[in-house]
Structure prediction request, 486 residues.
Amino acid sequence: MTNPQAPAGSTEWPPAATKMIGAWMSRQRWYANRGAVPLLEEIGSWSLAADQEADRTSVDIVTHLYLDHSPGKPALYQVPITRRSLPLPGGAGALIGELDGLYCYDGPHDPAYTAALLALVTRQREVTGNNMWVLGSRAATVTVPPNTEPPALVPQTTYASRVLTGEQSNTSIIYEPSDSAPAPAPAPAILKLFRAIHDGDNPDVELQSALAAAGSTAVPHPVGSVLAEWDDRGLASGRARGHLAFAQDFLAGAEDGWRVAIAAAELGVDFSAQARALGVATAGAHATLAATLPTRPAAPGDIEAGVRGMLGRLAAAIAEVPLLTGHAAAIEAKIAAAASATWPEQQRIHGDLHLGQALAVPQRGWMLVDFEGEPLRPMRERSRLDSPLRDLAGMLRSFDYVAGSITIAGHDPAAARQWAARARAAFERGYSDASGRDLRQSRALVDAFEIDKALYETVYEARNRPSWLRIPVEAIERLAARDPVA
Prediction:
């Protein structure tokens, strides 16, 4: 039987391709099972039609969904591949391998794929593939005046694309006006291709779309998304449904908060004004999410589950980093104090908030991005209602990490600690003023959430960056010893 995804006149996509793709996947930053040899099962695939006017070379575009059965972290991965009869100019770094006379490339690095994918979204196209169904959808916030088209809907050949470097879990494609684009130039966009795929709405799409639809200025405007269905033996229905990609405005000139904060800390420049503004932006995003999506009071079961999780992470951290043993009693007391505190309402939150998830945008201030949460956690867990204080703890830890990282680089430790203390206090003031919730009245609870985050960090650093271990350990020592009313 011929493969329905194979180009006309070609042979079936052979089993050797899976081995070639597995070897390539094992070297990618988004592959979670580092050091393992992927054991791949193809769950489904679907094709995109290349614009042959824009690309004169014969090119076949197929996206594969592979379930990795290797020991460790099972995951379903999205792998778009272009197959070309001739080499892609400048594409050597994206070459997966050669097979049956065809050059196989990682799709996001191939302009034929990026143009076809953006067209799928903005033209709202539907594709039926091999055990899959795919739909591109334009965001409701993208308006189309009579007889006109918004910038993201102009002919795809007016865009040049490039892959954003440095990402760990996904692949983001930036679309910018090409040199041949007619005036006025189309607006740039960025499309995040989710590499690990899950059943359920992706929070990055769901939350940012909800915020934008409510008029929030804390997130970029969405352009659209790609939704899919595929076979899933683990579900009673036999079918899973989730997002493959999400496109939004690309904010030219934006800098991520980590780089902005590091630059300020290295120069000893006070960051209080920026930190306070970030606290205001965070409070605004929380308020909008609470107003537009479900909330509920924190029930005894929520508090019990939260405390149980904190104690479990404490035990795991002590097993991995025994030097924490001497602080165990003080940490347990902090967690006990949190258990008897008044918890805020449970709501949808960012889930992984830190300085790297905040963008400083010229003339627009702080904007928050990447609401996806932990990509390898099941979607049902990432979509649960949670405490907004978890987001605050993440950002407070981020300020500490700025200070710790520049100290490791040789800067004065006392000055770095003072910088972080001022930034942390300003962030809390901004959040308190904007939310109407005085965080000083929730000191024990905020401290417990921050210790919980730092415990996770100790395990990570012990396994991956032992020279950074002192950053979370020193924070745990400080927080465990702090007066709960300070």
About this structure: Residues 189 and 249 are 5 Å apart (CA to CA). Residues 1-12, 142-155 have pLDDT under 50 and may be disordered. The longest strand covers residues 239-249.
